[in-house]
Amino acid sequence: MANTVIKAEKLGKKYLIGHERQSGRYKALRDVLPALINKTLNKAKQIFNSGQIITGNEIEEFWALRDLDFEIKKGERIGILGRNGAGKSTLLKVLSRIVDPTSGSVHIKGRVASLLEVGTGFHPELSGRENIYLNGSILGMSRFEIKNKFDEIVAFSGVETFLDTPVKRYSSGMYVRLAFSVAAHLETEILIVDEVLAVGDAEFQKKCLGKMGEISNNDGRTVLFVSHNMASIRQFCNRALLLDKGQIIGNGGVSEIIKQYVNHNSGITNNLNNQLFIEDPKKEFQLLSVDLFNNLLEKKNIFECDDEIIIQLSCISRVSVPGLYGYLTIENNEGVIIWASDTFDTGSNCLDNLKPNFYKINIVLPSRVLGHGEYLVNIAFQSAQNLSGFFIDKPGFICSFSISDNYTDRGNQRLGYISNILKWEIIN
């Protein structure tokens, strides 16, 4: 069709994952040398056949995407939703031509600008000015086109003072400001943005959403937007895709898909098992598990409004991270943020420069604040000093719970999301 700019048919992406299985017996030198030779030969064969090196003596196939069929038309603003590991970032990497699909095909009409992670396409040793020209060239722009847009890019990014400073000295927020500004102002037909706006402050996020809306409405450009912030998705997008385990399970209007996403993720039952996360040794600081307790330290997911709710995070700090802090949001079942908090709320940041060790962190929600309903908890950790060399956990959605608020003598539910008891008195 003439208006279709992206069309995927039976699109799939497979990765090979290696597992090291130990025999448990002592290995002599005569066992080690042949194994080492075989491993070297296997690696050479893997590079020749697929370009991917898999370590381990057992190989597992993992389909990050499987049999995706969809079309995106010119000027559409598409929100892509799904839990961590659903395949969102892999899909965007395929659409950005960073990785090739394993099966199926995807047809893209027009130039693509991608902002997939902080500093995408930037060289750390080059200045901000040099990286604008470098990034623009990577996106297929001529020097003349970049020069015409240069002043607009710098003004929008707000990094004029540091324009001739190497970007390795930029904070993560400055990185994102400049990278988004380059991607948004250069003349590409398709803009892909993956969660990186969460690094910026609220004012800059609002500015970015406004800019994406402007280029979509005025220039007819297509935008693909991944975010765990349902309010941003609802405000900006006019259609949404929902991914789960590498497959599309929802495709339609934004409100309908957000409702499906929330219902799919909440799964609120009286199940007392905690939420576990797969360990990743590359992460300097990582969330390992989540448990919910009431004020009597009873583990549960369904609470009364008079209960305190304790969200207990089990974490590991593998190195001491300067400026490490945590940020938490609680959303209702429509994706609206009801509550936000970070580790600076108590006056001192308890996570800053933690020594390497295992830690339990309690976040206490007071009683009689949240009203009857279902709630989703999201969390992220990052460094206030931004040091791009640190790989810190940003798990997003971590757990959900529900609250029941009955009138003590009437048995019906109190309306509203806030359940503080108000004082009524006659004063005359």
Q: Quote the average pLDDT.
A: 80
How much β-strand is present in the residues?
25-35%
Proportion of helical residues: 25-40%
Radius of gyration: 24 Å
Shape designation: globular
Question: Structural class of the helix and strand makeup?
Answer: alpha/beta
Kindly describe this structure:
The chain is α/β, with parallel strands linked by helices and 428 residues long. The chain has helices at 29-49, 88-95, 128-138, 143-157, 172-185, 202-219, 230-236, 254-266, and strands spanning 4-19, 58-73, 77-81, 103-108, 112-115, 190-194, 222-226, 239-244, 247-252, 275-276, 285-294, 302-304, 309-317, 324-332, 337-342, 357-365, 373-383, 396-404. It has eight helices and 18 strands. The strands form four sheets. It has a six-stranded mixed sheet, sandwiched between helices. Strand 8 (239-244) and strand 9 form a beta hairpin. The longest helix is centred in the first third of the chain and has 21 residues, at 29-49. It is globular and about 75 Å long.
